[in-house]
UniProtKB/TrEMBL annotation:
One GO CC annotation: peroxisomal membrane
Family: Belongs to the peroxin-11 family.
Organism: Medicago truncatula
Cellular localization per UniProt: Peroxisome membrane
Phylogenetic classification of the source organism: Eukaryota, Viridiplantae, Streptophyta, Embryophyta, Tracheophyta
Gene Ontology MF terms: identical protein binding
UniProt-recorded name of the protein: Peroxisomal biogenesis factor 11 family protein
InterPro entries, per the entry: PEX11
Main location group: membrane
Transmembrane segments: 70-89, 109-132
Free-text function comment from the UniProt entry: Involved in peroxisomal proliferation. Promotes peroxisomal duplication, aggregation or elongation without fission.
Subunit note: Homooligomer. Interacts with ARC5 and FIS1B on peroxisomes.
Amino acid sequence: MNDTVDKLVIFLAKRDGIDKLEKTFQEDIPICFQACKLACGTSGLSRKAFRTGRFLTGFNALRRNPGSTLTLRLLAVLSNSGEMVYFFFDHFLWLSRIGTVDANLAKKMSFISAFGEAVGYVFFIIADFILLNEGLKAEKKLRSSEGKDNEKEIQKLKSDRIMRLMAVAANVADLIIALAEIEPNPFCNHTISLGISGLVSAWAGWYRNWPS
């Protein structure tokens, strides 16, 4: 029990941990309890407050993981740039909704933010598929060769594959939500599509931050 509590504290200590907790409330509560719309809205605004300054994490992500090839480096720049646009303009969306700046800016800020978000997700997904393919090739090569450390490397590749599949699931779900904001359409804006996308995104995010 204490171990579980310790892990939860570590999870919530991360900026992503708080973000995913807020997102779970924001996306999932309306599906199950329509009476909680007020709590959902409050959760959505507080979630944006927790993300203040998060657009700068894109620079750190590029510094820590620039990519092993030219293609992956380019995809990393494009994906993180899109995400940075999303988080940067999301600040203005939040400020307009709480009345700090002109409320009429909300719609425009929401569009720009969602557009940057969608662009970022597309390149994140492409990069993950490339890395998934590379991981499968590496595993096949290890299985065809002999070595006592091969099994450890194979398990490491399998764990990495699961995390990347979770990332793809979350990014595809978030892409659908972003498209619903950019260009409203019957599929993306349907209650079921948005509900499932919100659940997938939130829970995939939880797993990536707290896999055990």
